[in-house]
Specification:
13 strands, 8% strand, 59% helix, alpha/beta, two-stranded parallel sheet
Length: 788
């Protein structure tokens, strides 16, 4: 008994000591400690359980060598976890892994040499191999692709099969090929971790290792499947030959109490998951005082089913429940950020965009930690409900005599509450499933609806000489101001400051001979995804999803940029946030020139997520396009993003002749620097957001006064409201839109719009759908719809 307890204890102590040595020498962060301790404790518990299963089980000399390998593997796992937050000593990680692999040759040889090979030792050896391979695959995946994780996950997928399918538990015949393939995985992954081979060659080796592993696992499963009948027959023979087992000893009060407590925890977890409110981040204890019908059904069915079907039911229902909890979490996040629930059809495409934005906003290392944490949470959300339902249905089956009557009585109570109209009778989980299915169906139908809408265009065939005749010879600047919404100018703690800037700008423009008119548009998006607002404004079709954007961007729909180009303007785009080729810029919008952070010559610092200040963006447009002589009139879409969340660094407006290549901003103090985050200090974030809008609007006004002429027309508008953290729950999608021009003929042509004088809209200003702007703009400035 002492040896059975001493082995796991010794391993746990050695592993904790190794973590302490790593922390004292190369350093170990919170992630490394957490993962290392969790792995050490799990390994000790599993080994102790294996030793306790039979009196003959003991740690032979070979198993002590395996325990050393397990200790080294825990060190590798801790370093891998730490690599997502800080630089990892690769040489040390590779050395630990290489020693563990070398010891794998010794423990097997030692077991054969001493004649002490055992089933426990073989199983322990295999599980340590699998654990080390998993840790190494996690380390290699960010470099060589997430598919590498399949190498590490293979053993655990097979283990899940053993758990669910009895025929997969039969012992496999020894095969040298299988050992070679298993050893090859660790060797190849260790070489990948060392990063000593060319990337293409290393990917080829990893792929070859994965293919060999798939073949090996497939061969094992195939053999087990063919032998399933023989396995059942042998099990039956053993059952007949086996004497009647002695009654299991009565569990002590402590173990019995722990079992009851675990079942109660499982019940409460499932109950809470079923009644968890969705679409709101604020809820009280009263929200959980509900009786979910789903739990009564699962308990009753689980109590009646045989063991194998009951387990399948629990696992399937648990995974579905975990997925529903995840969807509810996503609903809360999307409502907080975008004022709408999660759309399973379109929003799944935002994963890559979200990770990239997160890396730009908080740094690559912090973003990677968050991504790993979210992935771990997702796995836990899928696994924990399944484990809880396994426990719950097993308890119901073991106590069928009281479980079924209790479920029946609660079902009668549920019906009574339902008839009385009481909200306590809950079917929230089922309703969420139905809603998600309907959402998927609606998302799929949206493709056909949009396909019919795209060709319906009054100006589709209008020739260039009949487009925009009222703006001939004018430079037209379409300025999108990031997160500039109604909340910036009305009914908020920061709107007085913004309005002061707008009123001052109006007065200054008027003194210089400029007039301005302002109204509202209802944006197609909220809190983010600015490109959806851009394409809505330009195309005259409301686009609120990435799927719709992708579909429309592949069409020949007339955009404002195409209309201006057809009418003889040079068309350009400037998106300072973009850092890669934007295919829609030429294939859909047909811009003659696309500027982004790669080609505007900026040499200054970044300002949080915005890579450059709005003042530089406008100065670059002036220098690269508007200041040229003997040119065609220019139509430019310019995206201004100094007001992009999280508003941590707000620039200061400087003299225009000092802007240069932007390097001056290294030496210009910030207007404001704050640690406010979108989901952190909301009061501070609101204040910083207001100041960022003040900066951008002051910059636009200053730019117009310095560079605009009688031949300049500026259309500035917000792309969307800021997230609900700033806008508040239930805020509208309204964004201000203004037209600025010195030529009175331009202002006269939009007199019929009944917009407010100046840059500040009044609460009574008209609100148009954002998609209505294109046609009204084209019509106001002399465009004639094609006939026939």
């Amino acid at each position: 008994m002492r040896e059975r307890q001493g082995g796991p204890a010794a391993g746990l102590i050695a592993q904790v000591l190794l973590l302490a040595v790593l922390a004292a020498t190369v350093g170990l962060g919170v992630a490394g400690w957490a993962v290392g301790l969790a792995c050490a404790a799990t390994m000790a518990a599993i080994l102790a359980r294996g030793l306790a299963r039979g009196r003959e089980n003991r740690l032979e000399p070979a198993s002590w060598v395996t325990l050393v390998r397990a200790t080294l593997s825990v060190g590798v796992a801790a370093l891998v976890a730490d690599s997502f937050a800080r630089d990892t000593p690769v040489a040390l990680l590779v050395a630990l892994a290489a020693i563990a692999l070398a010891l794998d040759l010794i423990d097997g040889w030692l077991a054969r040499r001493t004649g002490t090979a055992s089933e426990l030792g073989a199983r322990f050896d295999g599980e340590v191999d699998a654990f080390l391979i998993l840790a190494l695959s996690v380390y290699a995946a960010p470099t060589y692709g997430t598919w590498v994780l399949a190498i590490g996950a293979a053993r655990y997928v097979f283990l899940a099969g053993e758990w669910l399918l009895p025929w997969m538990r039969a012992p496999l015949p020894p095969r040298h090929w299988r050992k070679v393939v298993a050893a090859a995985q660790g060797v190849v992954l260790t070489i990948a971790a060392a990063d000593v081979l060319p990337r293409a060659l290393m990917q080829a080796l990893l792929l070859a290792a994965l293919v060999a592993l798939v073949v090996s696992v497939g061969e094992c499963v195939s053999w087990l499947w063919r032998q399933r009948h023989a396995t059942r027959a042998k099990a039956a023979e053993r059952a007949i030959a086996r004497p009647e087992p002695e009654p299991a000893p009565e569990r002590g009060p402590v173990r019995k109490g722990l079992a009851v407590a675990l079942t109660v925890v499982a019940l409460l977890f499932v109950w809470g998951a079923l009644v968890l409110p969705d679409q709101t981040i604020v809820f009280g204890v009263g929200e959980f005082v509900r009786l979910p019908l789903e739990i009564l059904v699962v308990v009753a069915v689980g109590a009646l089913l045989p063991k194998a079907p009951r387990r399948v039911l629990a696992v399937v229902a648990g995974v579905v429940l975990g997925a529903l909890v995840f969807v509810r979490v996503l609903d809360v996040g999307f409502i907080t950020a975008f004022d709408r629930p999660f759309d399973p059809v379109s929003d799944s495409s935002y994963v890559g965009i979200g990770i990239e934005t997160l890396r730009d906003g908080v740094g690559r290392a912090s973003a990677n930690i968050l991504v790993v944490a979210i992935a771990a949470l997702l796995i836990a959300l899928l696994c924990v409900p399944a484990l809880a339902l396994l426990r719950l249905t097993r308890a119901a089956a073991d106590h069928r005599n009281w479980a079924l009557p209790a479920a029946g009585a609660l079902a009668v109570l549920w019906v009574a509450l339902r008839v009385a109209g009481a909200p306590a009778a809950s079917t929230g989980a089922s309703a969420l499933v139905v809603r998600e299915v309907q959402s998927v169906q609606s998302g799929l139908r949206a493709h056909d609806i949009l396909a019919r809408a795209i060709p319906r265009d009054r100006f589709r065939a209008t020739p260039g000489d009949k487009l925009l005749t009222g703006l001939r010879g004018k430079d037209v600047l379409l300025l999108f101001v990031e997160s500039y919404g109604r909340v910036a100018v009305q009914n908020s703690s920061f709107s007085p400051g913004v309005n002061t800037v707008l009123d001052k700008g109006t007065a200054q423009l008027k003194a210089d001979g400029f007039a301005s008119r302002t109204g509202f548009l209802s944006s197609s998006t909220f809190g983010g995804l600015s490109w959806l607002a851009h394409i809505t404004t330009q195309s005259g079709i409301r686009i609120g999803t990435q799927r719709g954007y992708n579909q429309l961007a592949k069409s020949d729909r007339l955009t404002l940029s195409v209309a201006f180009k057809r009418a003889g303007w040079r068309t350009v785009s400037e998106d300072p946030a973009n850092k890669r080729h934007w295919k829609e810029g030429t294939s859909f919008y047909h811009f003659d020139k696309v500027y982004d952070r790669r080609n505007v010559g900026y040499r200054g610092p970044e300002f949080g997520l915005p890579p450059m200040p709005d003042q530089y963006v406008l100065e670059a447009m002036q220098r690269l396009e508007l200041a040229k002589r003997d040119r065609r009139p220019v139509f430019a879409e310019v995206d201004l993003i100094s007001s992009h969340a999280p508003w941590t660094k707000i620039p200061r407006l400087i003299p225009w002749n000092k802007v240069g290549d932007g390097s001056v901003f290294h030496h210009v103090p910030l207007e404001e620097s704050t640690t406010a985050k979108l989901f952190g200090d909301e009061t501070r974030a609101r204040s910083a957001y207001g100041h960022s809008i003040e900066y951008t609007m002051s910059t636009i006004t200053s730019f117009v006064r310095r560079y605009a002429t009688d031949k300049t027309v500026v259309v500035l508008l917000g792309d969307h409201q800021p997230a609900t953290t700033v806008s508040g729950q239930g805020a509208s999608h309204d964004v201000p839109i203004s037209v600025i021009a010195r030529d009175p003929k331009v202002i006269k042509q939009i007199a019929g719009w009944h917009w407010q004088d100046g840059l500040r809209p009044s609460p009574e200003s008209p609100v148009w759908p954002m998609e209505a702007f294109r046609d009204r703009f084209l019509t106001a400035f002399g465009s004639t719809p094609a006939t026939g």
